[in-house]
Amino acid sequence: MLHLSKVAVGCATAEALRIRIAGRAEGGMVRVNTRYRPTRHAELIGGSLYWIVKHRLVGRQEILGFAESEDRRCLIELDARLVTVQPHARRAHQGWRYLEAPPPDFGGGDVTDLPPKLMEELAGLALI
């Protein structure tokens, strides 16, 4: 399955990203505006958009589809739920990039119940 990665511009923490997503959710969906539609967009539906915060993949949202805005930009339609993933180093980039080998989800358990700041500190030390 094919996925995308994208920098969460303006989000200094994973918690800031979570708050941004919650604020933009409408009917269980969030739309992300980007300049170009991926050429492999049909392969991406059902995959995920992985968010980069401080040079780490920190979370993902399922890609539901693609649309076009009134100004002819691409809208990536995402599930409003942000799934925490095991932090994985990733260089920042402009726009989006294809991602074929994403990190695994945390999969529940006590780690996801930690306060976001503590979770980020532990990830920064490569302890989780």
From TrEMBL:
InterPro entries: UCP032025 (IPR008320). It holds the Pfam family DUF1489. This is DUF1489 family protein. It comes from Sphingomonas changbaiensis NBRC 104936.
